[in-house]
Fold this protein.
Amino acid sequence: MKKSVIHIGLLFGAGLLLASPASAQRADSLMQAGYQLVWQDEFEKDGTPDPKNWTYENGFVRNKELQWYQSQNAEVRDGVLVITGKKEKVKNPAYKEGSDSWQKNRPYAEYTSSSVISKGLCEFQYGYFEVRARIPAARGSWPAIWLLGSKKNYGWPSCGEIDIMEFYPRKGHALLHANACWGDDKGGSVWDSAAVPYAEFTETDSLWATRFHVWAMEWTDKKIDLYLDDRLMNTIDLSKTVNGKHGNYENPFHKPMYLLLNLAMGATGGRIDEQALPMRYEVDYVRVYQKK
């Protein structure tokens, strides 16, 4: 899929160049405000993701998820980054019989996937971020587009987290989420969360999950706006996102953050639908615009 960088907010599909009035208006506004493209990955070269842009998480990482993260589940093919979640038995080298740790008490992982991250390579503070992707919507899938602050000074959640997109269920209903979180005085997390039922999208387009969609974020020193296909999903007021004492009362959203593109499985994603395996999470491009 040959692509070229053009107007902010433009969508590519079925060989046609499409732009909604809202995205075009927002693009004009951003360019007039002095934004320019500063970083991108169009995923045009088949093979492994560009090592100048991406590295990987490995093993059992977080949330008691079922998948084992490994680099070989991420590849660039036909103009898109493909992250594959599949049933695959992998030996856990950290296994310790009788351990209380969820990362160590399983001799094997039964599923594998990939988490592609820009940590230590490309980190950003403020800007307009745009990601065009097609997500798996099967039960048990938990795809995400998100950012984390550096953990050199603070661990999670005081490092800050922005979820441009997460897909997972609550109370049996699949939801699309747009969130941010930071730390409180006791080391816990404070969330500004928004969720829209997946059914709301499929009611108007039964093939929604088969199509690519554009997730975007406009992040300034005042607020974070999160969008899905030009729909404003959530606005986070950064005057209210100050950490508690564990984060030294600092605001994590005034510091650089790195990108993560991952497909988790199980845990919050729900019981895995074995009939839906392998799952494919596809990213067409990632673009970051900042002021000159």
Remarks:
- The longest strand covers residues 279-291.
- Confidence is low (pLDDT under 50) at residues 4-19.
- The two ends are 30 Å apart (CA to CA).
- The chain is about 5% helix and 45% strand.
